[in-house]
């Protein structure tokens, strides 16, 4: 009877509480999309790997409102325009006199306009003929559907996951003047942006969403204690990893490619590189500071530094052009290179990153994305790129006596940073650059327009042709300047369609971040959102996501990787990434970053972060010292040579997870002429032209769906348990055990019973001997570290302030047991510089040493220990 009364009241035009509105006539899209960019939808028209099919029909409650999710082909309203195409401009919801005082939307956005710019408008037409219109503002009322975070007027009411990201929907409320409503018109603003509305509800009374957001400020109390820290590493200490370097850099001549790996001209052994990025102002230290920075880098175990985003700051602040180098800045830059070289540290650079044109120089270029595309097609911009490159590469460094083109300590070179044209052109460029591309497309393909827009597949072919011609020309130009080092580009986007472009390069480079910040309001400004999840529980998306992008016949490097944010599992990332990079037999890794300013650390910086820096020690031995063995077996991924067809931004998840067991990477399939890599045991087929068995005895995989809970590498050294959140790497000279609170895990000589807080435990032989024979061991117990004053929103890992106080370490306690032969062992706790704090007592039981690792130890907070005995 009660349900009947409610239904009767609603049908008579009075809404009782907040109830769902019927969208069946207004809806124009479904949540599922099987084919990307086909112009048919649904959702954002980005294909099966990036749609909202995980949203099931039914009811979503967000007090005090209830939303009803419909199913079928007309379930949602999608309005707006993207860099790819136009969607619908408006949708009308008829109410026929229902009274409304509050309107609620369950919605999200993609390709958002700038903060607080209108994504769309809500126009209310009342029965008395009057109207009111309300803006829906980016970052205030609606946010990105990827990695959603609470907004001023947007509560995250639903979260799910698709193959590309965590996704979600926002519940927002809009107060109306009130009255009997004829209809609601949702319309787009005209700015680039896509507005996706999954459900609408309304109330006849004033209602507000329950927002329980509060801020939490980290202080030194409870589970957090002050951690003394200084950047310097004590010479000769257990944290001094300079023994891994071979100084000076360049002593063996230029780097070259041989048999798919890097070697030097005068040393034919394959060589690897591990290091970090120096960014922006950190590339221009004073001479004294450059010496300090180079020494710290060497003692951290870095043998390569990428100098990044220096190109704008190496110019005069007030300039007439964007190619003339500032003498003072150039002096600092070149002195830093000399200081690094002296210690055995190589450098790598890009020739364009973020250099801004001078006033009036290129009016059509608004940002670095515009420049990257313009340099491929517009002659005057390409000349600008070449002139800057000439000035930089041919200036003689007074501290080395060499130009960069002549410098063997210049390891390798990327021409333009993150310039994947398919991605850039689809994600928004200025009108001037887009019109130049369209005009050239129409010139080359007079019949290539469909409905006023370029045919998507033909346009991608055009983009591909433009890119290939540009790259070949730039490579020839650089060789003409005398540049001898390996060249690359497109170090961004893990798309199988890029493999045919990457065949042009001497080596393949990639970037990958886990828990990269999301910006709910202004890009690169606080607040920033992180998810804080365990990368193990996320099935090791990093490094698995980029593993298939490697080409088997040339070196593979990662010039940017990081596990960002203040999450409690971030200590997992660096050792795991380096271990699998070694299993894959990759060639160089650069964490992003060591520092941006050398003073105020940001969310990516390792300079004041013991979690990253201690993780670097494990990474250095796993990867640089080659403690983790490469897999002998491999499963290559066969991709099509037709780069413009069937564009997909990512490889299937199953292709990436091959990297946890054996080597993987791509081969461009050209039929019988295609050579399979040595050790091929199966072939993963992405190329549609592969229809049957391609080689006798080599089975063909076609996107297997089986998801396992544990994976062991074919070498037996690496093992991951997704369900229990465990990882171990066990090698003769080093081990790491990564485990959550309450778990126990054993390796070869190391067993850890973790009593409190997630941690990464490790043991490293510092004398290059097998662990049982070593006389000097570094033992690591890496918990979490944050800065006092860090301010988080209560809803999750949304950072409002990184804090400016001292470092605080989280209380972490674990029982460490090491199976070592009897000897006069001594155990010392170390501070973050490697200085011995105190001798630590331990229990000796036959051939086992047991001690309690406690970051709150009475001797002083510690996450590193030195275990020594007299040399045999």
Layout of helices and strands, plus pairs?
Layout: H1 2-11, E1 19-20, E2 58-62, E3 65-69, E4 77-81, E5 90-110, E6 118-126, E7 131-137, E8 155-161, E9 166-188, E10 193-203, E11 215-217, E12 224-226, E13 255-258, E14 261-264, E15 273-279, H2 287-300, E16 304-308, H3 327-342, E17 346-352, H4 368-377, H5 379-393, E18 410-416, H6 421-426, H7 431-444, E19 449-450, E20 453-454, H8 456-480, E21 487-488, H9 499-502, E22 508-514, E23 528-530, H10 541-544, E24 556-563, H11 573-584, E25 588-595, H12 610-624, E26 634-639, H13 653-657, E27 663-668, E28 683-685, E29 700-701, E30 710-712, E31 718-721, E32 726-730, E33 734-739, E34 744-746, E35 750-756, E36 759-765, E37 776-782, E38 785-787, E39 791-793, E40 797-801, E41 807-810, E42 813-819, E43 826-830, E44 836-839, E45 843-845, E46 848-854, E47 864-868
Parallel strand pairs: 15-16, 15-25, 16-17, 17-18, 18-21, 22-24, 24-25, 26-27, 26-28, 28-29
Antiparallel strand pairs: 1-10, 2-3, 4-10, 5-9, 5-10, 6-7, 6-9, 8-9, 11-39, 12-41, 13-14, 19-20, 23-40, 30-31, 31-32, 32-33, 33-36, 34-35, 35-42, 36-37, 37-47, 38-41, 39-40, 42-46, 43-44, 43-47, 45-46
Helix pairs in contact: 2-3, 4-5, 11-12
Estimated radius of gyration:
29 Å
Strand content: 25-35%
Number of strands: 47
Largest sheet: 9 strands, antiparallel
- Kindly report how far apart the N and C termini lie: 89 Å
Write structural notes for this entry.
With 872 residues, the protein is of the alpha+beta class. Helices cover 17% and strands 31% of the residues. It contains 13 helices and 47 strands. The strands form ten sheets. A nine-stranded antiparallel sheet has the order 30-31-32-33-36-37-47-43-44, covered by helices on one side. α2 (287-300) links the parallel β15 and β16 (304-308). α11 runs parallel beside α12. Residues 1-16 have low confidence and may be disordered.
